[in-house]
Amino acid sequence: MNPHRFQTPKRAAHMQIDEQLNRLEEDIRRLKIEFDIFFNGGAKRPPYDTKNRVETMIKRLGDDRTLNFTQRYRYNTLVSRYTALRELWRRTLQEREEGPHRPLLR
Prior knowledge:
elongated, 3 helices, mainly alpha, 72% helix, single chain
């Protein structure tokens, strides 16, 4: 017997959100790999398409008022991870553009 056969609409919505959270987690992992490839010279430009997709998904899920406590916690954890990585990528890109830092001469 199919356990999903007798789902309520609310349960189905929560399962759909869980799938979106799984997708977001996977996309963040993929984005990290793509940035690693870029920073190591394997790609000519940063993976902005994937980055935009992740940010769109974060905004969409952040506006969803139907997340239960567990989903909201997981969402916040993923957003925190993404924010830390985004800041690291921003600093790394900035350092690349500015070139090597020279010590201050006195």
